[in-house]
Amino acid sequence: MTQEQCPHRNNVQSTEKPQVYKVGIYGWRKRCLYFLVLLLMILIVVNLALTIWILKVMNFTIDGMGHLRITERGLKLEGDSEFLQPLYAKEIQSRPGSPLFLQSSKNVSVNILNEKKQLVSQLVAGSHGVHARGKMLEVKSSAGKLLFSADDNEVVVGAERLRVMGAEGAVFSNSVETPHVRAEPFKELR
Questions:
Q1: Where do the TM regions start and end (predicted)?
Q2: 56: number of CA atoms within 13 Å, CB side?
């Protein structure tokens, strides 16, 4: 369409300069955008600094964290450690030649569960004493000889000599069978 065909168009010649429109953000919008970018940069720097500080304080290395090292046999924990929740492990042992200390403000409990998660045996060492619960209790010497055994049916004392040190001696409510009874040397047998 030519100019002659458009009657509504202004017949002003283009002697004026064409208007240039500015593209972009100006004024308070630009200041808010710069402020937001600056705030994000500060947050990123603070986050990075805190992450590096946590890594340094927790002593993270390629081998593990702090006193906890990852080895081919499992986890190795060096030094004193505190567990706030129950500890589940297949095996716990100390370094060769060093004792293993278990310390608690209340008690130390060792529970043995079967495959159905039912309690089979239990050992509780607390301030009131040591309590053991299970089907059988055995005490053996370092050579492997049975010293004491107890189950629901009988109690066996496997030592070569049984000595009763109480002031009242030994009291039996039923019969006693023994191949040999003797008193201490130069003491009378009653």
A1: 32-55
A2: 6
